[in-house]
Here is the input.
Amino acid sequence: LQHAVDLRKQIAGRNAALPRDRRDLALSLAKLGDGEFLAADTRQALASYQDARTMAQSLRRSQPEDASMTRALGTVEERLCIVLLAAGNNAGAMESCREGIATLSPLAQTLPDDVEVQRLIATTEASYANALRLSGKPQDAATQARLALESLQKLQSLAPSNAEYRRLSSSAETILAGSLAANGDIPASLDAFGRSIRSMKIAVEIDPSDLSSPLRLAGTLLAFSRRLAQGTEKARAHDAAQQALRLLEQTSQKPGAGA
Here is the structure.
């Protein structure tokens, strides 16, 4: 990745370089940030993302009619939104999330059938909802989670057999469930948990070879069980916990589970 970025820098630094060369460099810097983040080098990842953002912002200002420049900036903001949230910087994450949504929303309306644009705005909205929830703003988080779910419904209509989009929907429903519970609306929270579980079950059915979906489903079932146990539905809580344990046992026996 670093070698690819260095080559992009050489190309973008030439006098004859085109705006698209600098756009490609910004996207390569964002991918470099992804690699650095996966390698647990969060500080360097954020530096790469910031460099990518500065370049993408400049390109969008100079080429406002070029959808590819807007897409590039939205891509970088989406990555910053997710990584800043994972790093515990909720305030920074919310800023990037808001910028990403503001950047991508007009593009999503212009390109309603563009799966990648719809995915970008859906993941950014879901991350924003989670940042709001973690910042102690459950009412705003619930509102934003519902917007994310609307975007994910559009995405699923474009690609109904995509397991990742079902996983994203499950995550957004779980964020909504937590936000509603914090607002004191326990029945609605349990309904959202139920939808989260159904979405993840669909993801498992679509791609049974993927090991992450049953593990995430087990985690959601355990969270659902804990929520039920706080009320009067002890039998349902026990059943959900048993389902989670069976899933964990089944998944541990699949090829590649110990890899």
Q: What stands out?
A: Residues 11 and 52 are 16 Å apart (CA to CA).
